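Thread: "does anyone have the structure for this chain?"

Original post by V.I.:
We have the sequence but no experimental structure in hand. Need at least a predicted one for the grant figures.
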Amino acid sequence: MEAHTLVADVGGTQSRLGLAQNGILNQASVQYFVNARFQSFYEVIAQFFKETSNVQISRCVIAIEGPITANTGKLTNLDWEISIDDLQRSTHCTDVTLINDLTALGYSLQALPLNGTQHIGGSNSLQKKERAILGRWPWNRF
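Reply from O.Q.:
Generated one for you, tokens below.
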């Protein structure tokens, strides 16, 4: 059995989890969970594994909507904390990355084709491939 990477996007209202191999997400593995039905993200992970049989993971990459300090992330729109230590315990995986969701999007920009971008200022050329992710926080104050 080939090992997988557990990937997740954790927001205030829902979590999306899936499995990737060699950097490619298996779309059929993606599951959506309504966070209000769970006490913690670790319960979401347990439910994902319950519904996904015979999977061995070698790595986890978890993106969350909120700040991360001292290897612990706190969601801004839900009273959940997610730590690398607790992720290691709940997944039995030692290679765990916890990252802010906008930071994760920034890393993906190199893979985005030019027709997936919108020019917002400066010269008309997008050839320099200078790109940015724009977001606002906190969401409920605008």
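V.I.: this helps a lot. The chain has one domain: 4-115.
O.Q.: and The mean pLDDT is 87.
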